[in-house]
Amino acid sequence: MNSSITPKLNILKTETSRVKEVDFDNLVFGSTFTDHMFECDFKDGEWQNPTIRPYGNLSISPGAKVFHYGQAVFEGMKAYKDDDGRVWLFRPEANFERINKSAKRLAIPEFPRDIFFEALTTLVRMDKEWIQPGLGNSLYIRPFVMATQVGVSASPSDEYKFMILAAPAQAYYTGDVKVVIADHYSRAANGGVGAAKAAGNYGAQFYPTNLAREKGFHQIIWTDDSEHKYLEEAGTMNVFFRVNDTLITAPVSDRILDGVTRKSVIDIAKHNNIDVEVRPVLVSEIVEAAKDGSLKEIFGAGTAAVISPVSAIGHKENVYELTKPEDSYSARFKKDLMSIQHNITEDPFGWRFEVK
Amino acid sequence: MNSSITPKLNILKTETSRVKEVDFDNLVFGSTFTDHMFECDFKDGEWQNPTIRPYGNLSISPGAKVFHYGQAVFEGMKAYKDDDGRVWLFRPEANFERINKSAKRLAIPEFPRDIFFEALTTLVRMDKEWIQPGLGNSLYIRPFVMATQVGVSASPSDEYKFMILAAPAQAYYTGDVKVVIADHYSRAANGGVGAAKAAGNYGAQFYPTNLAREKGFHQIIWTDDSEHKYLEEAGTMNVFFRVNDTLITAPVSDRILDGVTRKSVIDIAKHNNIDVEVRPVLVSEIVEAAKDGSLKEIFGAGTAAVISPVSAIGHKENVYELTKPEDSYSARFKKDLMSIQHNITEDPFGWRFEVK
Ligand SMILES: Cc1ncc(COP(=O)(O)O)c(C=O)c1O
Ligand SMILES: Cc1ncc(COP(=O)(O)O)c(C=O)c1O
């Protein structure tokens, strides 16, 4: 791809925008899409015909490999509008790199940087009216790639479709989040695809998560599949533990997604002179800390939910409640992170990226 | 579903069959589909509108959950035509039960038995001309279910599409199969979805399989993800080892698919008074047996490939060649199995199911 000439982005504008029909105060996350979407096909060994066109259905063969073999990866990122109407992305380079890392693990050809950024910024600019200003509001952006070759034989596709959808979003989680520590089901294998945002990783979690819901929990904190001894991450969030004043989180691995929010939280914490330990986290030490009161906070970190404080954690037959401390780390990180994202404060890290 | 009335199967016949255009001697596995396909939607808590209609594209939202979360499962089964033109399925009940087992693990609602069998047999009957008689020829049948609800938030879909496609097939593998024992990548986690025919399990294997191909192997024999100590199964086949005159295969588990061919081979072997051991198979014992010459055969067993003899097995830096013995088990099982499938011999097990 590097040697080929970047194809020109085709643009087909909608005749009538749907933005006026949207009730922005009652959005269901990820289910209302903006006027346009981006599409680009991989055929004959090349990414071809990059096009922004009105959001609408695809015509696709039921024999397309994505339906049968889950050869698909995705990303999740957000755009924010500040009070002056300027639009910002947050660390888009990280998402670009990650989708190609995920693609590689799923034997999907990498997508070219220049088309990605041109498509992303053009789409956001065209659908700018869909972004509401105000803290917590955003445009959730979903780049994804799927195998489109027709064939029900289990081998890599030689045709793919790369797409970007965008959906206006309010805050993802509302209310208290109760989590339970996995001790039977697992999310990822050693040497598996856990570190990739592979489509199949998510469908695989729905059933165990339903079982957890029936017991009153919202999310599962996954553990290693061998012994359920180490705490890893939640379904769409990395997880942080505060024991006394130290912030602890698991290192990324081939089982754990390298979250953009996670690494941003680590940097913000260090910037605030908070002790951060990135190391394997034992279930037993967190349960002990819950019992002796040194466990002050647990929170999830991810693009959709931003920072999601945990109010109770279940392990085997026990549930440990957590009371938010006055000097809450999670509240502080959330404020710092959102202030940067929404262009309210300085950005000492250089994370903001303006869509002009 | 049990209490509801079975909806009537709608049938829309094609106006012009494509069967005359097909070169049955040069089929690429799983890429030419018959004239018709079956479709049934799950909406408002019910399977609705079961329909057989001409094979063709679907119109589907790019926001459908199957593209993003891999919430999809499938089956693979075959129909055979005997020399009298009668058409037979092989143990279809096992595939029906397994797709619902897979569905459950992926939080997909189960599909009703009566619609499944009515759709399956009607479709096979309608597209009967597509089945070639002759050993090795068959109609490969692909039932599958996918999440169709529109929404890019990671939670179970509340709408699904169940489909059946059919594709005429010749033998799946040609030539020697060289396999390599996994010692870095893995297929399935303990407590994961390995035992389900979940779409995501297959896409996840493509990259490691490509790496194996670069080293001259066709398939990987997967091992446990914790220590790579136990031999489990191949990408689309269960695996059997013959050490001296004993047939050994791993027990099914939550990491290993309960293959229909596997259990049929076990029954055929027992019927032939061959010693069968279903127990964890150590990598080390098979490598030892390869070295001391007691390893006589390895073969894969699966619907697509039927029985696939292995000619060489790689482990770390070594490759062990296998010479097919005169009294080959794999040849015998293949013959016995195919003779039953094609209605050439008696069926002492009651596996054949005629499509009248
Ligand atoms: C499995 C998993 N872990 C963690 C995260 C958080 O990553 P990020 O902060 O980049 O959104 C996500 C979602 O995005 C995820 O899917
Ligand atoms: C992972 C896996 N193992 C084993 C098999 C063999 O199962 P069966 O004999 O039912 O086709 C298959 C394919 O069908 C498979 O996908």
Account of the protein in words:
Chain A is an alpha+beta fold and 356 residues long. The first copy, chain A, has two domains: 10-169, 2-Layer Sandwich (D-amino Acid Aminotransferase, Chain A, domain 1), CATH 3.30.470.10; 177-341, D-amino Acid Aminotransferase, subunit A, domain 2 (D-amino Acid Aminotransferase, Chain A, domain 2). Helices cover 24% and strands 29% of the residues of chain A. Chain A contains seven helices and 20 strands. In chain A, the strands form three sheets. In chain A, strands 1, 2, 3, 5, 6, 7, 8, 9 and 20 form a nine-stranded mixed β-sheet that branches. The longest helix of chain A has 16 residues, at 199-214. The radius of gyration of chain A is 21 Å and the shape is globular. The mean pLDDT of chain A is 96. The interface between A and B is large, with 73 and 72 residues. The structure holds pyridoxal-5'-phosphate (2 copies). One pyridoxal-5'-phosphate is lined by residues 76, 197, 233, 236-238, 257, 259-262, 301-303 of chain A. The site of one pyridoxal-5'-phosphate has 14 residues of chain B, from α5 and β17. Chains A, B: The modification N6-(pyridoxal phosphate)lysine is found at residue 197. Chains A, B: It catalyses: L-valine + 2-oxoglutarate = 3-methyl-2-oxobutanoate + L-glutamate; L-isoleucine + 2-oxoglutarate = (S)-3-methyl-2-oxopentanoate + L-glutamate; L-leucine + 2-oxoglutarate = 4-methyl-2-oxopentanoate + L-glutamate. Chains A, B: It comes from Aequorivita xiaoshiensis.
